[in-house]
Queue: 4 jobs
Job 1
Amino acid sequence: MIPISIPLLGDEEKQAVLEVIDSRQLAQGPKVEAFEKTFAAFCGVKHAVATSSGTTALQTAVLAYGIGPEDEVITTPFTFIASANAVLFAGAKPVFADIDERTYNINPHLIEAAITPRTRAILPVHIFGNPCNMEAIMDIAARHGLVVIEDACQAHGATVGGRKVGSFGTGCFSFYPTKNITTAEGGILTTNDDELADRARLIRNHGQRQRYYHEIIGYNFRMTEIQAAIGLVQLGKLESFTAARRVNAEYLTQKLKGVITPCETNGSRHVYHQYSIRVPDGRDHLADHLRERGIATGIYYPLPVHKQIAYQQLGYTDRLPVAEKVSREVLSLPVHPALTQEDLDRIVEGVNSRWS
Ligand SMILES: *Cc1c(COP(=O)(O)O)cnc(C)c1O
């Protein structure tokens, strides 16, 4: 079976883990600091704050901006649930703006209509590694005095106009095993704002600047030295992974017939965390057809966030027709760097033969 994703770890990662174990320093220390510095340089930002997951990076960002009860944050319904949950964890309310049918990202034209006196932030998600329209989003934020938290959990190394995602607002990345690079579990927050970075560090570590002196009520959202050591090795491989993903995606886009292929917006660099096509008719049939041919697929996401039972119980009754339609039609095909030319041809043959 060709898997939909696979963590690519080798001898260097194994060696890095063994070195940490031998060092006896396991909790947040010099490896985490080195990982933060390297990641900040990679993104072109002043600060990076490593966390235990992408979810806790998002939660830290929302809390560090002082967003709380009575506040609203505008986000997309077409994402992994953690994007919106991070707002709920702070006691604030996620407000959903529908997506663009071609990019699957939040539609900037609909953000403005969702702004109320309570709106504090916009939380765009670079879904599948395809950057949002950051020019439009930053412009809306500036005109309305809002902050921007980018959910870049799927978009390590993606760029808009040559500038890395996570450097426009405050960025949040995940290193879960299916992501473009992994630390097993892990996350990181990126920002150019000195004060925000300082608050994020306090929130992550029980409000301590100095051990056992607590300035604020914080959490244990720390990354371990083992994770950071793996992350340092993985970060060194990210550009080659991304190049392979892009070559694979380009091949699929050239060869696939009768399906809607992903779009790359002018001036932006898609990093293809997922290669998600749309099949307006017979999506599930195609998934079965591919499975029979030894090709795994994924449906990200079968149900938009506002339609989840957990959100229905909170009273969400939104109608967001584009997100709802896209959820019924998307199908992700393998695009990861471990695919061989033979795998790619099997995927193409599988998709193009589905009605025969
Ligand atoms: C993976 C992911 C998250 C959460 O990251 P974790 O590390 O799994 O907590 C948040 N948002 C998006 C869009 C993601 O893909």
Job 2
Amino acid sequence: MKRLKSIPFNKPYLTGKETKYISQAVKSGKISGDGLFTKRCQQFLEERYGFKKVLLTTSCTTALEMAAILIDTKLGDEIIMPSFTFVSTANAFVLRGAKIVFADSDPLNPNIHINSIESLITNKTKAIVVVHYSGIACNMDAIMRIAHKHHLVVIEDAAQAIDNYYINSNGNKQALGSIGHLATFSFHETKNISSGEGGMLVINDERYITRSEIIWEKGTNRSAFFRGEISQYGWVDIGSSFLPSEIIAAYLWAQLENIDAIQRKRLEIWEKYYHELLILEKKGIASLPRVPAYSTNNAHIFYLVFKSRVLREKYIQHLKQHQIQAVFHYQSLHKSSYYQTHYTGPSLPMSDRYSDTLLRLPMFYELSARDVQFIIDTIKKLD
Ligand SMILES: *Cc1c(COP(=O)(O)O)cnc(C)c1O
């Protein structure tokens, strides 16, 4: 087993079948969207995870934009979401005139702090968007209960949560993305399963199914036309071009075929990090990720939460000197240069804490046991 000379934070994994399937798509003569590879991916994902309907999209960003249109987001609507998330979670709703109501993160992990949600609900609240940070489940029973009580839509930003499960109070496993009314996933090259750029919208609430296909196809009823349900298609609603080409879907299919191997490998790396770095927690240097009893683990990210920002910087520089790239993550959106002037809510100390002290370690399929050991040893050398 070789050790990498310089260890990047991420390296996209190639299963080896990508170019074969892309070439099949090209030779088939149909390379626009909604073809055989798209259907194959969608069906696989629906069956494996119990999603009611899947539509592949060009990204998780565009899947979120579709979700914002589907729930009829209008000027002045309020959307609750954690501040510790990617800009696209918020942008999709800002594009439709909504006001974002940012919630704090949980002290135990960066997911939305459940107890903070109800005090943020007003008569203008339309939806709660939860983010399963690092793939780890939010407490979905609690969230669905709150949403039901206040007649709110729940959208799961499951960008990082492919192949992970929520374990409900009866001990049953439900795939993340199958619980909210809608859910969005990313196949960006930094995610467990990737097509370079790519994503999907999951529609679990049947009321949204017909319209979702129309929005996906530029506001036309072309999908129904292709199925022979109508004799001609036309402009029936707002929409955009949200569907990926067959070239992207062909690439994605090669990845999905290998999902079990990919997940197994990532979990091995995650667990090695966890067991070997527990010592940092004992020494009071950093805390390790918590996987609550209601969540399984898809090993999307392995992160450390340092005691201070200064300490994090010290570790980043130390790792860099040994050619290891470790990176921090989101900066609280309520403090972003775009949104801070609009933000009128309370301070969000946990969100800021994760912005300042969370560090992600390299995590990708080709990371060998020797690489992981080298990273661990390098970290342990500094204290
Ligand atoms: C990656 C990510 C996105 C955006 O995904 P794209 O496919 O790059 O648009 C959105 N939300 C979260 C939480 C993400 O991690």
Job 3
Amino acid sequence: MTFEFVSAALDSRRQQNLFRQTRVVESSTGALVEVDGQHYLNFSSNDYLGQRQHMSVMQAWVEGIGQYGVGSGASPLVTGHTRAHQALQDYLAEHLEREKVMLFSSGFAANQAICQAFSKTNKVNILADKLMHASFIDAAMSSGLPFSRFLHNDVASLSARLSKVTGDCLIATEGVFSMDGDSAPLTTFSDLAKQSESWLMVDDAHGMGVLGKNGLGSAEALNLSQHDAPILMGTFGKAIGTAGAFIAGSADLIDYLTNFAKHYIYSTALPPAMSHATLASFQSLRDGHQQGKLLENITLFKQLFSSSRCNQYPVELLVSDTAIQPLLVNDPKTCLAMSEKLKQLGIWISAIRYPTVPKGQDRLRITLSASHKPEDIEALVDALDLAVAGVLE
Ligand SMILES: *Cc1c(COP(=O)(O)O)cnc(C)c1O
């Protein structure tokens, strides 16, 4: 028998309650999601601001189709880079006060591109937070560059590693962590980076849209200049509501990536109409309305949860002020059972298990959105009470 490892690997995943499969979403409107003919309140979306179905964003997409058609037709360096892409880049560069911006088809590709392009010509050391997203960790590991991880958000751990590094060094972290919802001490990290002449890279997939007065993320919220965070990565698939990603930085950095990042050079440019819609999404966030609604929901959830019966059981709500409110369950089987129970109660919260999170840190990753009404949040906490007690009693 050949390729026996395929079924063996699947069997092992099943035995450990770690097998995964995709599900078909029939419809998803506002905070509702329909799966297998059933409707659920969706607490597992990264559409934190409801921008996916914001009228002005959808309208811009349609308008863009009229102007450009549906696809870009080529990679950016051939004929795929349109006025719509340039306008989005210019908007981001201007408001983030960066010299240049470039677009990628996904955040995954952008993270891979950075590590791959740096591995090309020189020896850059990479120091990354232990909990960074798989798209970066995987890229750093396969780059062949010297790579180590520092303890999560730990200044002392980063300093210790920095002191051992010689030569160029990239410090990589996230603005808001995808699975924990907490934030990196970016200002302190940036000071450390500048002292050691390293470059700080911020992956702001979960800060984009949600933080900053124009929704431009952690860099805007904390006033991090290009000098403070020379590599800024953001994605559009989460709170911005579309898809794709960008990297912002010096003209030299962006020109370097444009010349050496294979994920950029050999991949079809984003659909221009979508870039047009992405720009409309950023513009619609400038009134702060959606961010305000999300904040109200976060406050309400934390307040209701603090007096919920869940606190009598061995589950732990991680400390987070963001849309991501993880409930640690610490065992994949229990976590799956709670997720199933919640489903019976009409609440959709995916069980996030190893290897997305470290072993033993399985969790219900609850995400809140501006699309939720206060009564949705009440229903969520009632259902959590029942599900946690039901599974653990
Ligand atoms: C989602 C995510 C990515 C990948 O972005 P996509 O555009 O979805 O490919 C990268 N980094 C972090 C932290 C993410 O959460």
Job 4
Amino acid sequence: MGFRVFCCGFSFASFVVLLHSAVLILLLLVHHKASAASQCDFFTGRWVPDKTYPLYHPAVCPFIEREFSCQKNGRPDLDYTQYRWQPLGCYLLRFNGQDFMERLRGKRIMFVGDSLSRNQWQSLTCMLHSALPNAKYNLTRQQDVSTFSFPDYGVEIMLDRNVYLVDVVREEIGRVLKLDSIEGGKVWKGMDMLIFNTWHWWNRRGPSQPWDYIQEGTKISKDMDRMLAFQKALATWARWVDLNIDPNKTLVFFQGISPSHYNGSQWNEPSAKNCVGQKEPLFGSIYPGGLPPAVGVLKSELRKVTKPVKLLDITNLSLLRKDGHPSLYGLARMDCSHWCLAGVPDTWNQILYNLIL
Ligand SMILES: *[C@@H]1O[C@H](CO)[C@@H](O)[C@H](O)[C@H]1NC(C)=O
Ligand SMILES: *[C@@H]1O[C@H](CO)[C@@H](O)[C@H](O)[C@H]1NC(C)=O
Ligand SMILES: *[C@@H]1O[C@H](CO)[C@@H](O)[C@H](O)[C@H]1NC(C)=O
Ligand SMILES: *[C@@H]1O[C@H](CO)[C@@H](O)[C@H](O)[C@H]1NC(C)=O
């Protein structure tokens, strides 16, 4: 080359090298920005067929309850287990049970909530057991708390059945749902990780409603707007978190609203009265019916918590999975609320795993 820039004695070659370095630095910066966003949005994406799923065959998980064992209950198709969630802007690492267990060594995780929490809890125990089939496990129950332990790792994965998070107290007048009282929180203390959920029971009426009165402050009434009651209970829960959580000790998640599929108009199939016979997810990222209103209430209450709480924002990805429910193959006559296992909650746990890496 031998070309010299007139003033500075720079060769063209070094100019090229300089330019090259500048481009490299720029690329590094962009990359850095991308990995700073590696708290990537795992919740916006689409479902893609993937024959390497499910993570476990339901038959190798001996403790799945009847409620979620669709295969055992006669569901003929397995297609719904062969999808992978693909976020739009990044990749999810495949769940690694061995790695998850090592990270959790000596720790206690507790799911708190209704049967959707049980769904996720069972999913996680199945994912771990199938990854570590030789690890001893022990399943015990005391009152409302079920504990699945892996003694060799000192890991306990617990479930506290508590459908409202706030208390239902038996009093002289009857059973009172107390929106300001959260004594149930005593068993949540000292956990290393908590994953809360409540929603589905707020709409229960009639014989399946487990309370007779609802109390807010000193005011006791027969009923009130259910969405408002839900919001007040979440506010009580948020105060509990701010008062009781040491963020250095405990990671706090909220499971998010798990959607049901009882109305085909919501996915442009008006003739469908429920999820029966659905064999495919909705492809793409848009659910025509939009979000359930409870999501907005939950998000606005979560914004008021001062301590760090991460929302497992599973609503959109689950809305797309009209094919993932037990339908006829669960316990209820038609169950389009819970999820078959293996199935959709495995993805909730895969995201949980990616969030704690
Ligand atoms: C979920 O869907 C709603 C409306 O369909 C949209 O506004 C929202 O951004 C979506 N959220 C995520 C995390 O994809
Ligand atoms: C399982 O846990 C219970 C209660 O903690 C304990 O009594 C029992 O010995 C445990 N069983 C095994 C096999 O570890
Ligand atoms: C958490 O740990 C940090 C650093 O070790 C410390 O400065 C902080 O005071 C701790 N916070 C609490 C609430 O204990
Ligand atoms: C089903 O959804 C459609 C569209 O959102 C709505 O107009 C209709 O009232 C719903 N049907 C029932 C039974 O809830």
